[in-house]
Amino acid sequence: MRIGLLTEGGYPYVSGEARLWCDRLVRGLGQHEFDIYALSRSERQEEQGWIELPPQVNRVRTAPLWTADWTDDGVSFGAGYGRRARRRFAEIFGELAAAVCDSGTGAAGNSSGDSAALADRFGSALYGLAELAGDHGGIVGALRSETAVRALEGACRAPGALRAARTARVPDLLAVAGLLERALRPLSLDWYGADGLGAVDLCHATSGGPAALPGLLAQHFSGVPLLVTEYGVQLRAHYLATGDEALSAPARALLTSFHGKLAAEVYRRATVITPGNTHARRWQERCGAERSKLRTVYPGMEASRFAEVGEREDPGDPDTLLWVGRIEPAKDLISLLHAFAEIRKEEPKARLRIVGAPAEGPDAAAYLAHCKALAAQLFPDEADGAHAVGDNPVSFEEIGAPEAPELADAYAAGSVVVLSSVVEGFPISLVEAMFCGRATVSTDVGAVVEVIGGTGLVVPPRNPRALAEACVALLRDAGRRERLGAAARARALELFTVEQNTEAFRGIYLEIVSHCPVRREALDDAGEPVPFGNPAEAYMPGRWAVASGGGDAGTGAGGAPRWAHEADGPERLKEAGV
Q1: 64: burial class by Cβ within 10 Å (0-12, 13-18, 19+)?
Q2: Residue in 265, 287, 298 with CA at minimum distance from that of residue 21
């Protein structure tokens, strides 16, 4: 079958998120063809290029989400917008703004408080904007226009609007309009014709949000079924990121409402949703995902690179604690250092190795410097005698250094692996430690308990005393470390390998295509319909012959748009290997 793989800030870019599991998935399903549709997040990401792609990737089409705008008109309408088109945009975007601003407790415009009616209103406006974008070469300028700002202002002042949004001022609305334009930029792409996503058998979005928007349009216009995979819930990530941005409370409220309704629309239209763990699954259910659509598929990780460490009898240095990951505030290394101060009181020979590089951005570098300063303050250099060189029991290292040339070497050096995070999705470092047969001490955040499953110790987050007590208990009991490590390795090999992940998606692909095939008109070389080109079974009523979300599978819920077959659409993409 032909798969349209939809990514945002990830595969096939070298520095992309979820790059590894997407590459493993594509390589593991060599019997299928893949078309990659990628949205990039930064100029640097594009400059770094792509990873080497396997032969089953037919082509790659990309578009940027990071540019300020795509038009020379700034915040004005494009040249293709006449008076009628502008009036049509004002009506449709006004509906979208009203749905976003509706608090759900009363009327905002003509909306009722019913959540289903509100979801229909948001979806209709979204697809209406997509039609308008196709008819007039995009809506980038329109979304940044004065018309859009006035529509947002009117929706914020309407009865029943979100309380926090009622005080929005013009600067707030301008900021929201700009961010909405970026989120809705996929609507302006020319990816949806018969030579694009309209020709695939299945769209697989590797996350929610903007990455899933092309899949929504392919499902709506061409009846292509949509599979959505979320290993980190996009809506949750947006909530966490919004607090860090310099936005006012009204702007945050509007963006939160928009992303929440977009997530609900994605879950409503998706044929199958595959969360990466129970933690993500709970988020999806709270956002409206139907339980019947959910299939938990754990991320697949390469176990072979840790096989040597996991199978050897050497348990590592019995006095060494190890932390591995990206250094950033969410990892709460401050609590770990304070916990280690308590550990040293009980186990004076204990050492802590912190292995990892800071995350991107100046805040992460400043956080690393703060952690190093705290470690120097808590643990002055120690020496065995008056003539010996002092040494600090806490070391900060990076993979590739002489002490840890490879990631597996870092795990081999310690006997206990520690995770001290206050926010965590799927704890990759814990799974790696489990592959290596190491005992673990972790904080109870994200999917940690689900991953560990009784093969390690779990303590509350932001509790250095509890973290220290658990670490001391394992440092003093070699037999317990060995038993927990062996159980952890067996669990990881059963649940978290690349093979189980690939086989799970192989079955899901076949299930979706068999129940929701895309029914296309069979044409001969002259473009004329072929009599009996489709089997009679394709016209029989039944769930397998109908695309998810209702509507005829051949025309989609809204019918194929006029512009889907035009050859002179806006070319804002790169293609490779066509």
Answers
A1: middle
A2: 298
Structure tokens at 384: 């065995």
pLDDT band at 551 (very low <50, low <70, confident <90, very high): very low
> What confidence tens digit (pLDDT) does each residue in 92-128 have?
999 999 999 998 765 444 444 478 888 999 999 999 9
Nearest alpha carbon to residue 431 among 445, 421, 417, 443: 417
Scan for tokens 């992940």, then name that residue: 501
Could you tell me the two tokens for 421? 């995070």
Phi/psi at 202 (5° precision): -160, 135
Nearest to 418 by CA among 320, 321, 306: 321
Give the H or E element holding residue 93.
Answer: helix 83-101
φ, ψ at 177 (rounded to 5°): -60, -40
- Annotate 322-375 with DSSP letters as a single string: EEES-BSGGG-HHHHHHHHHHHHHH-TT-EEEEE--BPSSHHHHHHHHHHHHHH
For 509-547, give one letter per residue: b (16+ CB within 10 A) or e: beebbebbbbbbeeeeeeeeeeeeeeeeeeeeeeeebbb
> Does 275 sit behind a cis peptide bond, omega within 30 degrees of 0 on the bond before it?
no
What's the CA gap between 534 and 202, in Å, rounded? 19
- The answer to whether residues 435 and 493 touch, using CB atoms and an 8 Å cutoff, is yes
User: Which residue carries 């009991």 as its tokens?
Assistant: 477
Give the tens place of pLDDT for each residue, 424-467. 888 999 999 999 999 999 999 989 999 999 999 999 999 999 99
